[in-house]
Recover the amino acids of this structure.
């Protein structure tokens, strides 16, 4: 199964976003990054291969994630990394995909989220009962075993969404939310909700069907985000009002979904990306918000130098949103470029993210964006990934980072590590 990683764009572009552009100010201090695990240490990569999803922590400090390939059957795995007293981490495969007849359990998993009782939920991008992907649950059992169950099979034939690409989010009552790349009423992707019922049954509801009509976006690849009021936010890689821009497919949008009293959700396009000028376009990751309700994200292409941007959307009193470019990435041998993952924000309001390419070794970077008192933001390249003969670092990070309780960052790279089949890494700011 080939990876569904997006084809990265790198041409000059523009979005209707205005603001100050910063120049990369990389910081090369003592290396603070450490590879915790390199995949494909076992024969036939039975421990997993090519991680393409973010990690999650449990209360004991163990890390959990998925690999797109590898595992006992070669079509993905769910893994746990447990820290030891000596600083090493031990990997355990909790589940290998395509263990069921005709891969009805799903294949090529992505993104995990914990439920209130410690159960794990995630998506299989392909496979399942109809071959179009599935939502699953993994529950720990006695003796260290984990029990796997499919909660929903996506079905192209009944107007359902299909091919979910990114992970789920969960609300306070245990409902799950996610997106599918395609399907729905207009075969342009969906936002869906899964609600638990009696006897372990789950009910799917399509909250929104995207429409390739020159107004709405389509093909959502990034994850969703809730705000404090219960509204959902996300991005689409294509569509919007850019018309013939981006090869006639549209340049993408940022959207908001608001729940109504009648159970219906209303979509509002907060921002249309555009391929002319010095803005950015083609957002592959989702968005994140700060305490003031501002929304931040990345575009894979465009910007002042054509290699992607970090943008900010600020809400106004009239319900309109104002966009601003905080940083334009450069392919200059120093800065990273072509980000595909969502950002995270720390308690001080600093943003952290990754780039798929660029940096000193063109293997990607970890960057920090720091807000200034004058409205300008300063970028620091805080780590340059380097998969070389002696370093064996991760390369090509394509998913969001996470924090631990002490402010350290953790993530995965789909390449690199000891055998160049992906790695889990830790970075201490």
């Amino acid at each position: 199964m080939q990876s569904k990683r997006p084809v990265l764009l790198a041409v000059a572009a523009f979005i209707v976003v205005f603001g100050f552009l910063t120049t990369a100010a990389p910081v090369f201090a003592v290396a603070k990054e450490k590879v915790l695990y390199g995949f494909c240490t076992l024969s036939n990569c039975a421990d997993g291969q090519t991680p393409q999803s973010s990690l999650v922590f449990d209360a004991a400090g163990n890390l959990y994630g998925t690999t797109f390939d590898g595992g006992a059957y070669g079509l993905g795995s769910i893994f746990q990394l447990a820290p030891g007293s000596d600083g090493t981490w031990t990997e355990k495969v909790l589940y290998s995909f395509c263990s069921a007849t005709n891969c009805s359990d799903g294949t090529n998993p992505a993104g995990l989220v914990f439920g209130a009782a410690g159960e794990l939920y995630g998506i299989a991008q392909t496979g399942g009962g109809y071959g179009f992907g599935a939502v699953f649950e993994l529950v720990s059992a006695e003796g260290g075993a984990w029990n796997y169950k499919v909660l929903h099979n996506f079905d192209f034939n009944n107007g359902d969404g299909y091919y979910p690409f990114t992970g789920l989010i969960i609300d306070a009552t245990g409902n799950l939310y996610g997106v599918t790349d395609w399907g729905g009423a207009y075969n342009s992707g969906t936002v869906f909700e899964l609600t638990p019922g009696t006897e372990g049954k789950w009910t799917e509801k399509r909250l929104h069907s995207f429409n390739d009509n020159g107004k709405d976006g389509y093909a959502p690849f990034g994850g969703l985000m809730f705000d404090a009021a219960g509204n959902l936010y996300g991005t689409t890689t294509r569509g919007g009002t850019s018309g013939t821009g981006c090869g006639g497919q549209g340049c993408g949008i940022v959207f908001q979904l608001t729940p109504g009293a009648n159970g219906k959700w209303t979509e509002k396009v907060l921002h249309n990306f555009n391929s002319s000028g010095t803005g950015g376009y083609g957002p592959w990751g989702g968005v994140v918000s700060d305490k003031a309700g501002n929304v931040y994200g990345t575009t894979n292409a465009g910007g002042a130098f054509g290699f992607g941007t970090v943008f900010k959307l600020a809400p106004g009193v009239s319900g309109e949103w104002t966009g601003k470019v905080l940083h334009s990435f450069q392919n200059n041998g120093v800065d990273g470029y072509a980000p595909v993952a969502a950002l995270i924000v720390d308690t001080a309001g600093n943003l952290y993210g990754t780039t798929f390419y660029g940096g000193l070794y063109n293997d990607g970077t970890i960057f920090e964006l720091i807000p200034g008192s004058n409205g300008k933001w300063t970028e620091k390249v805080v780590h340059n990934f380097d998969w070389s003969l002696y370093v064996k670092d991760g390369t090509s990070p394509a998913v969001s980072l996470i924090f631990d309780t002490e402010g350290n960052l953790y993530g995965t790279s789909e390449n690199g590590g000891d055998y160049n089949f992906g790695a889990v890494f830790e970075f201490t700011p």
Notes: Confidence is low (pLDDT under 50) at residues 1-29. The chain has one domain: 33-427. Residues 33-427 form a domain with the Methylamine Dehydrogenase; Chain H fold (CATH 2.130.10.10).
